[in-house]
Write a structure and sequence with these properties.
Blueprint lengths: L1 H42 L13 E11 L2 E12 L5 E12 L5 E12 L5 E12 L4 E12 L2 E12 L4 E4 L3 E5 L2 E11 L4 E12 L9
Antiparallel strand pairs: 1-2, 2-3, 3-4, 4-5, 5-6, 6-7, 7-8, 7-9, 8-10, 9-10, 10-11
Length: 216
């Protein structure tokens, strides 16, 4: 009789513990569901909704700040492959866009690296730029420099880069320095993956050790 009584007590305790565990799991599920609902409503509120659609991009240690309908990204990297199977990379200290025009990115503190033929690369820096993600088209503005082997060879005011065709164009004046050669031109283009460089609309060529390139 005593053994049966103790057995029933143990059974009751075990059943009670089981019910407690089930209740705890149910409470936990309700809490998780509530948290998910809050997060979902927060990110889908019409007034605060923010979106970005940037293809072929990565953000290394990027910080994303949202303000109204503007998405701001710091320390961004955009990379891809052009039609000649050569790689390119664009880094920016600051990148931002709006949901009304999400494929157009405004950038500042630009560094662009482009691979040409025979593993030859050029590095282009500028203060500001606009990047069209659909067309893969980059427009650089203000204090643009082109470097090869860490050596500045060209100074330009404004420049356009077609990243699909690996084509570089400038409708504004350019100064090119190479050894004792200085070239002044009102416009220029780099085509055929770096094999062809064309200076347009008037060219001034200065040769000699004492030749000095004047600022644009």
């Amino acid at each position: 009789m005593s053994d049966k009584y103790h057995h029933n007590q143990i059974k009751s305790v075990l059943e009670h513990s089981k019910r407690i565990r089930i209740l705890n799991k149910l409470i936990l599920m309700i809490l998780l569901l509530g948290i998910i609902t809050i997060i979902y409503n927060y990110f889908n509120h019409d007034d605060d909704f923010t979106s970005v659609s940037v293809i072929d991009s990565e953000y290394q240690d990027a910080r994303i700040d949202t303000l109204d309908n503007i998405l701001e990204i710091k320390n961004s990297v955009i990379s891809g492959i052009d039609s000649e199977n050569q790689s390119y990379e664009i880094t920016a200290k600051k990148t931002w866009n709006t949901i009304s025009n999400e494929n157009i990115l405004e950038m500042s503190g630009i560094k662009t690296r482009m691979m040409l033929k025979d593993n030859y690369s050029i590095n282009i820096t500028g203060d500001n730029a606009t990047y069209d993600n659909n067309k893969k088209y980059l427009k650089l503005r203000d204090n643009i420099e082109i470097r090869t082997n860490n050596r500045v060879i060209a100074f330009i005011k404004n420049m356009f880069i077609d990243l699909k065709k690996n084509k570089i164009m400038s409708p504004s004046p350019v100064i090119v320095k190479f050894n004792d050669i200085c070239i002044h031109s009102k416009a220029f283009e780099i085509n055929d993956n770096g094999d062809k460089i064309t200076f347009n609309n008037g060219v001034n060529l200065i040769i000699g050790e004492k030749s000095k390139c004047m600022e644009i």
